[in-house]
Specification:
Largest sheet of chain A: none
Number of domains of chain A: 1
Chains: A mainly alpha, B alpha/beta, C alpha/beta
CATH topology of chain A: MetI-like fold
Oligomer: heterotrimer
Helix content of chain C: 25-40%
Number of strands of chain C: 12
Order of helices and strands of chain A: HHHHHHHHHHHH
Radius of gyration of chain C: 21 Å
Number of strands of chain A: 0
Radius of gyration of chain A: 24 Å
Distance between the termini of chain C: 33 Å
Largest sheet of chain C: 8 strands, mixed
Number of helices of chain A: 12
Strand content of chain C: 15-25%
CATH class of chain A: Mainly Alpha
Number of helices of chain C: 12
Chain lengths: 320, 331, 347
């Protein structure tokens, strides 16, 4: 259609502007690059990892990282108590993290958004009942629920995804409900309803687009929670089971050697920390970007800082 | 007036009888408390006529509009549209009514979806009521509508943020008239606009009425604007109509003490006249509608109130042809 | 520049070629472009104009409330001759605000603390600026509530803002603004959120306080009727500039600038309902890329090539300034009669 072209061009320009803004914000950019690195590691793990993460080499047990005495570049981050390559395990561990993180966020997000939409849009008694369910679920200790379900179903990756989704969907429901309520009060939703739009159309065309930015920020933050929770569960032995790999699992199995081989817990631990940190940096940037007022302020502050630096350097030249 | 006089031969387009609306108050799990936003409101609007609804915040003027639009449920009373009670309409029947009763909202910024193009915004009523055969058809109709409200052709492909407040309100009006409704509820349609733009939009509404013959329920707190656009005016106080009548009767010969106080409080943009005016100040607050007092709602502020005013509500009684006042001691 | 009436005593407040720029992603928005105004002690100056004309930004600049993304990009604000913009005077500027300059905003609910009784909030101003003790401050708060027309001040002093009506809250705001007996009160759309009957009472209160206490008031308003009733002098703003300033009666009787003329004729009036309202075609220019010449040129019926250079504000009568090449030219020819008639009727 001919009239689609200007819209597309506009969107292209908006994306370019967004990219330029991200490029200026070094922390957020670092966060994004870090996450991209984790995703790439997860997808291409078999190609990137020098060894099979489960391959044991009895002759090369507890080798230190390459830059320490006794280490060499065949195992850059050293080996563990079974002679497995730590670097390969960290790279493959990204798989479990991404799979579980994304899986849980998708599952919990879908369910939570559905509940929130229903509660926010229908309102009244439906809203009351659904939100009380959310309250009850939030007040129930999550870790207890996890232990309960895992002990019944037995530990596996699928179980973890289900269990973590079951303990994390509530925040999606709450945020969605809040956003739906405020969107429903907006004039254009009222106008659409008075124009005679059916509920489905109102939700899809007028309400859902409002949810994209708050939910994407929330999804990233929830992802970090899930990464930490997965690590904790795997550490407790209820999560990912050997011979599969997971950062949490590796931290757990390395803890007995922490005094003789610190690298066993350090590298998977660092991977967890870096992933969470990167996601948080990106999320906080996204949050500001999604708020037009905050976004303008950030822009003006950056401009003022640049102007200040320019002035300082000019003055510096004058009085060397 | 440049607007043709309403044809009085027909039955009224809209007749509201004894309308009461209650809103629940927050809190109170076992015994839900509510307050009566409207109590026993009745009026009629003829075809092609503009009724101005005037009142201060909490008077119930917006609630009347919302009840007519079926955005709030009537607790009591009926709303007859073309002689048929619409207070119980549901589903498809309600959707069909929507094609005939449209709205122009106050805020030109929040009333247009920022993510939709003007084409899609204005075409939406046509699309959902199956009045646009194709996208090309919708486009042609929208271009026509935009022309009618005084917007350039190239507006169709733009997004709302590219327009000023007045232009946005024109887009909202184009959307409201797309289905050629018989009644348009205009809820403070020019209150958010600057004066120089206000005039353009008021004039546009008048021109469209002359062309399309729609009736307006024009809700406003601005008496000066109402004086320019309304044929008849209803003054609300505390959820009731205190006075209703032809525009000139209300503005030149107000009979209710509240109407008089209200008119005298409106500042006039002329320093000499404004400083020479006598203002009637009736101090006090509107009644608490969660526990309204018996009798007249204005009694606490009215300088003329006596025992009867405090005990018995004055009915809305005709004083002259078409001019009625709810007061025991009309001035 | 504005004519200084007395060479020895500097005016109470002098805004001198003030410019304010907002840095937005779309580019710098020049919200104020070289605005000059003088407020003498004890006078009421009305600042009128439509949304985006810069009237509120002017008030904010005086109060030091221009914050990121906005910045003062030129000019000065002087209090009794002393700069408030100069960073070296930051302390002095801070000490004035709330003490010598009071402020009343449009929405009292957002500027009052919802968790604190109103008496304590008024008292806080007094203890901070005047060093009163708590008991003294409370007694003074009761007096102030009485002064702004709140009945039973002794009991009401302990109410929280949400327990009061909008009009009462605005009275509390006014009490806070005058608590330290300031020389100037800046009132930014103080009655816009109120009903007309309440508005009338608040305007009466402001006029009364102004007369009794000799306070100067700057009233920012979009409502010509409000300005007509309360102000001594009026400055009309358009597109970030002052286009005309005059005594209130002169301005309403004989507007010099075409924009003022247009504004006056487009305001619907309760006292006469002509056949048809008249507006001003078009919309104000974008301040992202303000026009080089007169800001009103695009909408002005009498504008031409001579208006392509920015017209400076120049005297057009006793105490009157207008930024127009052709002041007093009836811009909307056929309506000249209406304006004349009104003026005639008054004489």
């Amino acid at each position: 259609m001919s009239d689609a072209a200007p819209g597309r061009a506009r969107r292209g320009a908006a994306i370019l502007a967004l990219a330029a803004e991200l490029a200026r914000d070094r922390l957020a950019l670092a966060g994004l690059l870090g996450l991209v690195l984790v995703v790439v590691a997860a997808i291409f793990a078999p190609l990137l990892a020098p060894y099979d993460p489960a391959a044991q080499t009895v002759l090369a047990r507890l080798r230190p990282p390459a830059w320490l005495a006794g280490g060499d570049w065949s195992h850059p981050l050293g080996t563990d108590h079974l002679g497995r390559d730590v670097l390969s395990r960290v790279i493959h561990g990204a798989r479990a993290t991404m799979l579980i993180g994304v899986g849980v966020v998708a599952l919990a997000g879908t369910f939570g958004v559905a509940v929130g939409l229903l509660a926010g849009y229908v309102g009244g008694r439906v809203d009351g009942v659904l939100m009380r369910v959310v309250d009850v679920q939030i007040s129930f200790p999550g870790i207890l629920l996890i232990l309960l379900i895992v002990s019944v179903l037995g530990p596996s990756t699928t179980t973890i995804v289900v269990v973590l989704a079951a303990t994390n969907w509530m925040v999606f429901a709450r945020v969605t409900r809040g956003a739906v309520l405020s969107a429903r009060r907006s004039g254009y939703v009222e106008a659409a309803q008075i124009a005679g739009c059916r509920d489905g159309r109102v939700i899809v065309r007028h309400i859902l687009p409002n949810l994209v930015s708050p939910l994407s920020t929330l999804a990233i933050l929830e992802f970090t929670n899930v990464v930490l929770a997965e690590a904790a569960i795997s550490f407790l032995g209820l999560g990912v089971q050997p011979p599969a790999t997971s950062w949490g699992l590796d931290v757990a199995s390395g803890r007995d050697y922490v005094f003789v081989a610190w690298w066993l817990v350090t590298f998977p631990g660092l991977a967890i920390m870096a992933t969470v940190l990167c996601a948080n940096l990106l999320a906080s940037w996204l949050r500001v970007t999604a708020d037009p007022q905050e976004r303008e302020k950030r822009f003006a502050r950056a401009l003022a800082a640049r102007r200040g630096r320019a002035r300082a350097s000019r003055e510096g030249e004058r009085t060397p | 007036m440049s607007v043709p006089p309403p044809d009085s031969t027909d039955d009224p387009l809209l007749a509201v009888r004894d309308l009461a609306v209650r809103y629940p108050l927050p809190g109170g799990f076992w015994r839900r408390r509510s307050f009566e936003a409207l109590d026993g409101v009745g009026f009629e609007i003829a075809r092609g006529e503009t009724l101005g609804l005037v009142g201060e915040s909490g008077s119930g003027k917006t609630t009347i509009g919302r009840a007519v639009l079926r955005r709030v449920e009537a607790h009591r009373g009926e709303i007859l549209f073309r002689g048929r009670d619409v207070t119980r309409l549901r589903g498809e029947a309600l959707r069909r009514l929507r094609a005939d009763v449209q709205v122009v909202l106050q805020d030109p910024y929040s009333s247009l979806n920022p993510r939709m193009r003007v084409l899609d915004i204005v075409a939406e009523p046509l699309v959902v009521h199956g009045r646009a055969a194709s996208r090309e058809d919708a486009r042609a109709r929208v271009t026509e509508l935009l022309d009618l409200v005084g917007l350039p052709k190239d507006a169709v492909d733009r997004f709302p943020h590219a327009f000023s407040g007045g232009q946005r309100q024109r887009i909202g009006i184009a959307r409201a008239i797309a289905l050629e409704p018989a009644l348009i509820v205009a809820d403070e349609p020019v209150s958010a606009l600057d004066v120089s733009v206000q005039a353009q939009v008021v004039n546009l509404l008048q021109d469209l009425q002359a062309r399309l013959g729609a009736s307006y329920l024009f809700i406003s707190h601005d008496l000066a604007v109402v004086r320019h656009i309304a044929h008849r005016v209803a003054i609300l106080y505390g959820g009731r109509i205190v006075e209703i009548g032809p525009r000139d009767a209300i503005f030149e010969n107000p009979r209710h003490p509240y109407t008089q106080a209200l008119l005298s409080a409106v500042p006039i943009a002329d320093p000499v006249r404004q400083r020479a005016r006598r203002r009637l100040v009736h101090a006090g607050e509107p009644p608490d509608l969660a526990a309204p007092p018996p009798g007249c709602r204005y009694q606490a502020r009215c300088p003329l109130a006596d025992a009867r005013c405090r005990e018995v509500s004055p009915p809305l009684a005709a004083l002259a042809q078409d001019h009625a006042v709810a007061c025991w001691k009309p001035l | 520049m504005t004519a200084a009436l007395s060479p020895v005593e500097p005016p109470l407040l002098e805004i001198d070629a003030l410019s304010v720029t907002f840095d937005t992603r779309a580019g710098p928005v020049e919200a104020l472009r070289s605005v000059s105004l003088v407020v003498e002690a004890g006078e009421t100056l009305g600042l009128v104009g439509e949304s985006g004309c810069g009237k509120s930004v002017t008030a904010q600049a005086v109060m030091g409330l221009v914050d990121v993304p906005g910045r003062i990009s030129g000019g000065d604000v002087r209090w009794r001759g002393r700069s408030l913009v100069d960073p070296r005077n930051a302390r002095f500027a801070r000490s004035l605000r709330g003490r010598e300059i009071g402020m009343v905003f449009q929405d009292p609910m957002t500027s009052l603390n919802p968790l604190m009784p109103i008496g304590a909030q008024i008292g806080e101003v007094l203890t901070r600026h005047l060093g009163l003790t708590k008991a003294q401050a409370r007694a003074r708060a009761v007096d102030l509530l009485a002064a702004v027309g709140i009945g039973a001040p002794r009991t009401r002093v302990d109410l929280h803002p949400h327990e009061m009506s909008g009009g009462m809250r605005q009275r509390v705001m006014i009490a806070m603004a005058i608590a330290c007996e300031p020389a100037l009160v800046l009132a930014d759309e103080p009655t816009t959120a109120l009903d007309v009957t309440v508005q009338a009472q608040i305007l009466d209160l402001l006029a009364d306080l102004q007369q009794r206490l000799g306070i100067a008031i700057v009233l920012v308003s979009h409502d010509l009727g409000v300005v007509a009733g309360l102000c001594h002098r009026v400055a009309v703003m358009y597109a970030g500039q002052v286009v005309e300033s005059a005594g209130v009666e002169d301005l309403f009787a004989r507007p010099a600038h075409p924009y003022t003329q247009g504004l006056l004729r487009s305001a619907p009036r309760l006292d006469d309902a002509p056949e048809r309202l008249v507006g001003i075609e078009g919309a104000p220019p974008s301040l992202l890329d303000p026009p080089q010449g007169c800001g009103f040129l695009a909408r002005c019926p009498i504008g031409d090539a001579a208006c392509a250079v920015p017209p400076p504000a120049r005297p057009v009568g006793p105490g009157r300034l207008a930024a127009c090449v052709r002041p007093f030219t009836p811009a909307w020819g056929d309506d000249r009669s209406v304006i004349d008639e009104r003026a005639e009727a008054r004489r």
